[in-house]
Amino acid sequence: MKLNSVLCVIVVACGASITDAELTCSECISEMQSLGDFVRKSGASISRFLVDNYCPTVDSPSCANNLIKHYVPALYMVTQRFITDDAKYICKLMMVCDARRRREEMEEMKEPASTAFTCHDCIEGLKFIDRYLLDEFVVDEFIVYLEENFCLPDMEACVQAVRNHFPAMHRMAMKQFFKPREICIQQDVCDP
What we know:
Layout: H1 2-15, H2 25-53, H3 63-84, H4 87-93, H5 103-108, H6 119-134, H7 136-149, H8 158-177, H9 180-186
């Protein structure tokens, strides 16, 4: 009896949709590219927001200067690596791109005709991305990536600053700026 209950839970869990969005693989990848553009365009605004809202929470007289100098380049690196470059990977996680097919088969295969990319698809897709970008393991990947690729040898306190500040700044920025409906409105997918 217990085994049947466990199997039922597994079957239901495996059959459950990762997202309610009904995207094709190419639509998903295109939206990831658009999201990367949105983040890059918002970099200066996010930095100003963090200076005003994050810096007062830490005891560091150089917080504002360091944020202004380093945050936007670090944000752009993370965006390029984890949103733009990993667009197809994230779409595979959403189960809209087939992870099992080889690249040649994917290029030869035509995607099934889909209905137009809708406001609902955009919002639901971004809700998935929001959960992904706030996942503790993914945030840890951001930190390791920045330590290895952003922190130069002459940046003495960089590794410690990334470890101590980036996760909290990331969460604060996501809460303030990552609003799926508003992003979809800016992309002209949803009506205001």
